[in-house]
Amino acid sequence: MIRSQNQIKIETSSSSMSDLVFLLLIFFMITSTLISPNAVKLLLPESTSKTMAKQNVTVYIDELHNFFVGETAVTPDELAPAISAGIESGITDACVVLRADKTVEVQYVVNVIDAVNAINEQTGSKHKVIMATSPKAN
Fold first, then answer.
1. What kind and span of H or E run contains 17?
2. Of 71, 75, 83, 90, which shows the fewest CB atoms inside 10 Å?
3. Phi and psi dihedrals of 5, rounded to 5?
4. What is the pTM of this model?
């Protein structure tokens, strides 16, 4: 009996496909951490200042005067503990970014500044509050 030496093997290599999926996974993980979405939709006041700071905690005040630390709603009394919990332990000079709607009265902004000052007095730290703004339209 004579056998053919050219046998056809039906196999596919999936190693290149798994490499591609792995690279796409890494790409989306890296790009998703670079994007910091705004949890609360606000109309920020306009400014020509371009000061940038590394934000440790973000506090939002919406047009209805609701406070949010990150994406968690808090009352004015819970503001200081929530901000303190958001700051990593060991950091003594954190930046608290305040994103307040442009219709919010100054008193609500002062409440956030007072909360950060209370944390500074209790812990002996030098945390600061930075007001977020949107670019001024020309």
1. helix 15-34
2. 90
3. -85, -15
4. 0.59
Q: What angle do CA 88, 62, 82 make, to 5 degrees?
A: 25
Task: Please name which of 2, 99, 21 lies closest in space to residue 55, comparing C-alpha atoms.
Answer: 99
Sheet strands (E) in 5-115? 46-47, 57-61, 67-69, 72-74, 95-100
Helix orientation angle between 106-123 and 79-86, rounded to the nearest 10 degrees: 60
Residue type, 78: E
Written as six digits, the tokens of 78 are 């819970």
Q: Are 70 and 58 in contact (CB under 8 A)?
A: yes
33/38 Cα distance (integer angstroms): 13
CB 127 within 8 Å of CB 119: yes
Lowest mean pLDDT among 47-56, 61-70, 87-96, 126-135: 47-56
